[in-house]
Amino acid sequence: MRRSILIVAFLFGLACSACADSLSLTYTVMGSGGQSQPIAGFSDSSFWWVDSTGTTPGSVLTGYGFDPVPPGPGQSPFFINQYASGSLLLSSSFTLTGTETLAVDFSSLWKNNQPWYEAEFALLLQNSHVVAVLADVRPDGINHTGDFGSMPGTAYATPSPGVTTSTTRANTTVVTLGGISYGQNSNQLGECVANGGACMTLIASSITPGAGDYQLLFGAFNLGSPSGPSALALNLVSVPEEGTLADLLVMAALALAWIMWRRLASRMRVAKPS
Q: Measured between alpha carbons, how far is 48 from 39 in angstroms, rounded to an integer?
């Protein structure tokens, strides 16, 4: 029986270790950001972050081939980048096979009650050029700049084909990054009063981009008008192995059934009269 338990435990251990393989990446900050220690109520582990107070010019985004607000009729490409500034977080290079899915989770936090001209984004790069927009959001989850509604020239870039993404508004404890406190920490006008203290949006994106070498680029930018500040906190970058967990659980169940059948058959042979 002890051998049975050990075999099943080993298979379950393999299954759990294959649930999600977190990529071990290093990051370079351009602007304002860094690596934060764990924050109670927000993250149990250290995490990387950037905010929109950085002075990295929007022209850097043009070099990657990305405009957080694509131009409307009569506007020049990368028009908004002439006025934008903020911070970028660039990952080290990593390699994916043709069937691996990349999953990225991050939090967008804001302090001002009206983050109308803030943008938080996640991009997949290949050869220093954007091959997929994983997410491009206003921190409060609205998909356009200003308060006049979504129209060409104000709408944020949509996720690229093949990208699955979700956004969820959430409450958060006070999160202090770079000396700026985000979250509901007073009842004064200018905090996130109108949002009931929900000063955070959770973004989860995934894509299966095909075999190749890639990098990730995250950004928190102000688009040229008084707003913000806002910050992007990177929660997780992983390569979940779909189907592996289910397959190993089935293997464990079959192994246990086979062991039990052998034990039963052995007992029947012993009990059979000669």
A: 12
